[in-house]
Specification:
The chain is α+β, with helices and mostly antiparallel strands. Helices cover 40% and strands 27% of the residues. The protein has 4 helices and 7 strands; from the N terminus they run βαβαβββαββα. Strands 1, 2, 3, 4, 5, 6 and 7 form a 7-stranded antiparallel sheet that branches. α2 packs antiparallel against α3.
């Protein structure tokens, strides 16, 4: 787990999380987190990955996005802002959270096969604001465009990382 110290980036992230928390009423026992799919180098946005974003948009259109999940686009890759239920050391991720993450990773690979140019590996990252001055994040998976990764693996890695990330929140 890494604690981020870039003041400019942290301020933007904290503001994004704050807006999310103001717009969405959390369930009791839930924590707000970011699940980011980021390229290790270069960019992953509509301009350079139009095929991937067509697939991502199609998946998100089919999914009935509920009030606890927000899709954000960034030049470095998509981000999901979500509330995650936490009950005594158990993190509960729903299909509505795991499926979009899996779809984004798969769309990147499919987009490259269909002509998208950037092909740097993706990193799956979980993060949250810890205080007004710090952001805690963990890179939990690195996936090349030819790598196969199952939703089961993504689900397990997300659960493990979020359990650790939110455990520090409970101690405060």
């Amino acid at each position: 787990m890494r604690v981020m110290v870039d003041p400019e980036w942290q301020a933007a992230f904290r503001e994004r999380m704050h807006r999310f928390e103001l717009r969405h009423i959390p369930r009791q026992g839930a924590g707000a987190v970011s699940i980011k799919v980021r390229v290790s180098a270069g960019c992953f946005h509509r301009e350079h990955s139009p095929q991937a974003y067509r697939l991502i948009d199609h998946h998100l259109d089919k999914l009935s996005l509920h009030t606890e999940l927000v899709f954000e686009e960034h030049e470095s890759g998509p981000e999901l802002l979500v509330y995650v239920a936490v009950a005594t050391a158990v993190v509960t991720l729903t299909k509505c959270v795991v499926d979009p993450v899996t779809a984004i990773i798969k769309a990147r690979s499919d987009g490259i096969r269909k002509g998208d140019h950037p092909s740097e590996p993706l990193e799956l990252i979980v993060r949250r604001t810890e205080s007004e001055r710090t952001v805690r994040e963990e890179v939990i998976l690195r996936v090349g465009h030819n790598d196969r990764v199952s939703s089961k693996t993504i689900h397990r890695r997300l659960n493990d990382a979020l359990r650790k990330l939110l455990k520090t929140q409970d101690k405060k």
